[in-house]
Write a structure and sequence with these properties.
This protein has helices at residues 3-19, 29-34, 53-64, and strands spanning 42-43, 68-69. With 70 residues, the protein is mostly helical. Strands 1-2 form a two-stranded parallel sheet. The longest helix has 17 residues, at 3-19. It is globular.
Length: 70
């Protein structure tokens, strides 16, 4: 995937969530590595092609804590 396709897909998710009235935030790779705020209900990964081991651990821990992942 090229960079523009990634940003287009991310924008589509933001539009869908915004149009549905869902409060959402866009986080960076660095944010993900630092850990996720437990107040999030769902983590949307529009194009997770390559994740670091730390990112995988954060995501798995979030799933175990009851967060959804799409």
């Amino acid at each position: 995937q090229d960079q523009q396709a990634y940003f287009d897909l991310s924008r589509k998710w933001q539009d869908v969530l915004g149009n549905a009235g869902v409060n959402h935030s866009v986080i960076s790779d660095e944010d993900l590595e630092a850990g996720l705020d437990v107040s999030y209900d769902v983590l949307v990964l529009p194009s997770a092609v390559c994740l670091s081991q730390v990112q995988k651990e954060v995501i798995l821990g979030s799933l175990e804590a009851g967060m959804g992942v799409v």
